[in-house]
Amino acid sequence: MNIHEYQAKQLLKGYGLPVAAGVPVLKAEDAEAAARQLPGPLWVVKSQIHAGGRGKGRFKELGADAKGGVRLAKSVDEVIANVGEMLGNTLVTKQTGPAGKQVNRLYIEDGADIARELYLSILVDRSVGRVAFVVSTEGGMDIEQVAHDTPEKIVTVAIDPDKGVTGREIGVLNSALKLEGDAARDSVSLFPALYKAFVEKDMSLLEVNPLIVMKDGRLRVLDAKVSFDNNASFRHPELEELRDITEEDDKEIEASKHDLAYVALDGNIGCMVNGAGLAMATMDIIKLYGAEPANFLDVGGGANKEKVTAAFKIITADPAVEGILVNIFGGIMKCDVIAEGVVAAVKEVGLKVPLVVRLEGTNVEFGKKILRESGLNVIPADDLDDAAKKIVSAVKN
């Protein structure tokens, strides 16, 4: 689950981290009152969407010459004008795609005198099986370009879970970020507090871009992006109220109700698979044969007929889907359960696109028999390669 910047900062403030004062705005008429709560003389008006690149983004409705989704204002009147332009309009960034995202929330924040912009994130480094800091002196809006062109400027520091952030790691991070004086002294509490927030709240990503050194030499968290591990949501019911479903795909919301691992993509072939690894392989082989997957969907190892039916409905609800590939290897999951779910879903919602089904494993013959006797126009496949070829051919023809 992702949250907005202002929500992330409120959470981090609870851990004692240095963030600027700010006020969220959901209605244009609240802009003046929000701005007057802050001292000025510089305000920052920030679009709140679940996508990066806001500063370099452009609003569809305002033309190519309009300012981006993060704007500086030097008066309350200028704050009000920016809020009027931004709220309710569609911001397009590199991460939103051409469709963009409608800006339904803004964050008005007190300005900062910036001396240096740094990059910091915390994530799970699967190569070492530990939480790690990723830092760079090249903070700001072009960190992706830095990672691509000069990866040597990015330093990764893994943390021993038994020891936490010790003086040694703080020293390494300070050296990597070239922190001295007050900034280095601030880091002694900042790095452990960030790590504590990450671990205690079961985050999957905590990104501070930029972490700034101000002209007075102190550190400040100028931006914050936080994602939580959905698998740990049962431990954090207090975080549910931070969820903004207007930022999520309708199909993904529906999938979450049925405990399905679903991610909407931009392709035309819907996929229903059991197991994340097999799902990734299925997506890869679809691309290999010249088509694009419309989704990642893992029904899991213990799905029942109702769950499979729900998954099939979600796939067919996507108007971009021109064909469906069901690829099941039955271990815990039984092939006849998958077949029953597919038949039930098709009878309920209809089938207007080609459907290729590859079944293998537990009760595979029962599953194939159910599909044969269903009267559905199902294209059977013997293995994954055969299935991919058939669905791509059926869609193209």
From TrEMBL:
Signal peptide: none
The keyword Magnesium is assigned to this record: yes
Subunit-structure text: Heterotetramer of two alpha and two beta subunits.
Family recorded in the similarity comment: Belongs to the succinate/malate CoA ligase beta subunit family.
Record-given protein name: Succinate--CoA ligase [ADP-forming] subunit beta
Pathway(s) per entry: One-carbon metabolism; formaldehyde assimilation via serine pathway; Carbohydrate metabolism; tricarboxylic acid cycle; succinate from succinyl-CoA (ligase route): step 1/1
GO cellular component: cytosol; succinate-CoA ligase complex
EC code: 6.2.1.5
Protein role: Succinyl-CoA synthetase functions in the citric acid cycle (TCA), coupling the hydrolysis of succinyl-CoA to the synthesis of either ATP or GTP and thus represents the only step of substrate-level phosphorylation in the TCA. The beta subunit provides nucleotide specificity of the enzyme and binds the substrate succinate, while the binding sites for coenzyme A and phosphate are found in the alpha subunit.
Matches recorded under Pfam families: ATP-grasp_2 (PF08442), Ligase_CoA (PF00549)
Binding site for ATP: 46, 53-55, 109, 112, 117
Encoding gene (name): sucC
PANTHER family assigned: SUCCINATE--COA LIGASE [GDP-FORMING] SUBUNIT BETA, MITOCHONDRIAL, SUCCINYL-COA SYNTHETASE BETA CHAIN
Co-factor remark: Binds 1 Mg(2+) ion per subunit.
A single GO molecular function term of this UniProt record: ATP binding
Entry binding sites for substrate: 274, 331-333
Residues that coordinate or bind Mg(2+): 209, 223
Alphabetical list of InterPro entries matching this protein: ATP-grasp, ATP-grasp_succ-CoA_synth-type, ATP_grasp_subdomain_1, Succ-CoA_synthase_bsu_CS, SUCC_ACL_C, Succ_CoA_ligase-like_bsu, Succinyl-CoA_synth-like
Enzyme class: ligase
Single biological process term from Gene Ontology: succinyl-CoA metabolic process
Keywords noted in UniProt: ATP-binding, Ligase, Magnesium, Metal-binding, Nucleotide-binding, Tricarboxylic acid cycle
Cofactor list: Mg(2+)
NCBIfam families named among the record's database cross-references: PRK00696.1 (NF001913), sucCoAbeta (TIGR01016)
Positions of the ATP-grasp domain: 9-239
